Amino acid sequence: MIKLAVLGPSGRMGRRVIELAAVKEGVQVHSAIDRSDSPLIGQVLDDGVVVTSNLETGLAGCAAYVDFTTPESTAAAARAARHTRVAAVVGTTGLGPAALAELDRLAETAPVLVAANFSLGVNLLLVLAESAARALGPDFDFEVVELHHRHKRDAPSGTALALARALAAGRDQSLDEVLCTARSGDVGERGPGEIGVFGLRGGETIGEHTAYLIGDSERIEISHRAASRDLFAAGALRAATWLAGRPPGHYRMRDVLGL
Ligand code: NAD
Q: pTM for this one?
């Protein structure tokens, strides 16, 4: 039985992680940690877990934690987990250098898995995109478009950036050198090798991604549409049971899924 800490129990994802963990064999939610001004603090969840804002006590005694929160919270949790060596499953997107550095430091003492997307379908999409880019080569132009609900904070989505990175890897490019996230005004012709990544926002759309691979006389589109948040929550729980007890270091969702 893996004892689990869940960050952000009041959030869209954290809530589903707790609900799915309650019916999944082999995991038990041991603690729930939310921001100090969350209305859930001090409340008792269905399974008897009291919601706390204290990371140290919340992580104590857990084999893994699942984090779908904010970049600032992700950095703070990684810092706290270094002392307890808890396995980290991080789904928060839009992570900046500070959070990534904390996760790198945590990976020196604990297993860490950061994934912009926990669904099997999206991880398969990344593999397909990389091999399509490799096969099509420099004559095709690559663009990525994503669509998410109006509440999403970061843009473009972490999954869209992962998709662009997979396309770049297929052509042995570094995404940083070819990424284009804005076109407005007299921007001139499309640069060679450029990969455009653009986000749309609206309604309660859970998440949709399409990679466009555009040649002179044909176009390939590879798409994924999420129909429920459950696939991300279930994927994160699967990652937590797989990760707990492994040696320190960084792991990928591809490793969990055997892709
Ligand atoms: P949300 O706004 O509904 O929830 C965020 C949660 O974080 C809230 O419960 C909030 O109280 C909590 N939080 C904020 N600061 C905190 C702190 N200091 N300590 C503890 N908890 C804190 O957001 P959401 O839709 O659940 O998404 C959360 C993140 O997960 C986003 O970055 C989103 O892009 C990402 N996400 C990733 C995947 C994936 O598969 N990797 C899937 C969906 C969403």
A: 0.92
